[in-house]
Design brief:
Elements: E1 6-8, E2 11-13, E3 20-25, E4 30-36, H1 40-57, H2 62-78, H3 80-91, H4 95-116, E5 126-129, E6 132-140, E7 143-147, H5 153-166, E8 170-174, H6 181-190, E9 199-201, H7 206-214, E10 220-224, H8 227-237, E11 243-247, E12 253-256, H9 262-274, E13 286-290, H10 291-306, H11 326-337, E14 344-347, E15 351-352, E16 359-360, E17 363-366, H12 373-376, E18 383-389, H13 392-400, E19 404-405, E20 407-411, H14 415-424, E21 429-432, E22 444-445, E23 447-448, E24 451-452, E25 454-455, H15 457-463, E26 465-473
Parallel strand pairs: 7-8, 7-10, 8-9, 10-11, 12-13, 12-20, 13-18, 17-18, 20-21
Antiparallel strand pairs: 1-2, 3-4, 5-6, 6-26, 11-24, 14-17, 15-16, 19-23, 22-25
Helix pairs in contact: 2-4, 3-4, 3-6, 4-5, 5-15, 9-10
Amino acid sequence: MDRLQNFIDGKAVEPLSGEYTDVIDPTTGEAFVQAPLSGQADVDAAFRSAARAFTTWKRSTPGERSLLLFRIADALEARKDEFVEAECRNTGKPVAFVRDAEFPGTIEHLRFYAAAARDLRGLAGGQFLSGFESTVRREPVGVCGLVSPWNYPLNMAVWKFGPALAAGNTVVLKPSDTTPVTSLLAAGIIGEILPPGVLNVIAGTRETGRLIVAHPTPELISITGSERAGIEVSAAAAADLKRVSLELGGKAPVLVFEDVDVRRAAEAIAGAGFLNAGQDCEAACRVLVADVVHDAFVDALVDAAKSTAYGPPSDPDATYGPLNSEAQLTKVESFFTDLPAHATVLTGGKADRAGGGYYFEPTVVADVQQHDRIVQEEVFGPVITVQRFSSEDEAVALANDVRFGLAAGLWTTNHDRVLRVGADLDFGKVWVNCHLEVAAEMPNTGYKHSGHGNDLSVLAIEEYTRVKHVMSAVAPA
């Protein structure tokens, strides 16, 4: 079986640990490649390399970094077919989705960071104290430890290293142990463009991630992951006061009011709930519907679910592929083992292990109550719950009554309602009459247990900087 290699100090290297783990094809449940199981020695080597590189990379100009990031985007795009094949093999996603949406979006985001590297803004300088001239410098934080998730492997890796490099930092990136393939593939290409040590990528398990967080070298840790992971990282980073940027779980409410086209809304919400097998922190997973259109909406949503196909990457009719792993499939199943008697599964609700894959049926669950586990906890599968509301105030109260605050959706044609409800929803992003649309220029941030910090927009680059005030005495004329 082929073995992947770490990428440290500009070279592909075998793990110093000498150990490897199997990477599973989620469409078959069988291993198709092995990845390094990086230990302390590997983490040490990666951070030594990043620290050496930072001494010169931090002095590069924004224009120099911008040009290199544009070259990286071009180099990755030139090997699009290779990346699409690798991502689909590692994740089981439909080829059309990765080829036409996910991979082009990844390149678009990288090019945004390349351009934004030259456009960081700050406070104006001047004499705010008579006789003293002040300026404000925005400087890179230093070496950064980055941990990316498995639901959008290369895309989320770019969301991490793109702004970090644009700001002048060097990085050690650990992709998820279940989806390391494209990050390691990209590292080899990027290593031909960047100076050695600026970008290091090491594979490994959660324990490798813990070693990264605990290491004394990084000044900042950024992760996208579960609520549990965020709490654990925050506690570990506090030991030496590392800065932490967290993008964690979500439980996105979608409020559907009585003035919308019910069938159009249901079809769009189903698409945003089942995309990527529901493995999206911002998935439209928790629908709140006005009483007067509830039954018609539910009928339309069930129809949309029943027309949603799933299957392996080779299936041109598949909307989504398998869940990431056996463990994730078991977790999704557990919500239905625990489902209270008052809840009604209108369609789906079962795993499909055909061919050894980790599939779960597109599912709609009605008659749930606010404090049911399936309403309060992130399922991260192709599961949509539906609740009723009778007033705008009730809808907002139900929407906000979870510990997550990443994203929400609002469907209405009433502009006044958009302004009122949009302001009252306690979430970092609110979509109106759409869902899961992403613009690189706009921030992606969370409230409450969805974490803190920013991905995308110039705010993402600022996340990887620190501010210095320089004051100079001005001699009188």
